[in-house]
Fold this sequence. Notes:
Layout: E1 5-8, H1 19-31, E2 40-46, E3 49-54, E4 59-60, E5 64-65
Antiparallel strand pairs: 1-2, 2-3, 3-4, 4-5
Amino acid sequence: MRLGTRWAFGAEPPASVPVELRERIAAAETAFTGDGADRHWTLTWLEGRPIAELDDGTVVRDTIVDAHDADEDW
Length: 74
């Protein structure tokens, strides 16, 4: 079992955040159009795979998923 963690938007992710997610998280923060103040990331593990979610619904895993993307077909 792996424990998750939280950290502030724009801050250096904790050591427990896998290296392969760090660049994707940085890209999501760069693409973020709003104010990042008072936003936080949450790292969770699902079936052994890391998932980072910003509290606005943006999810980072194998790809960046924007919860506010109007082009989603589902």
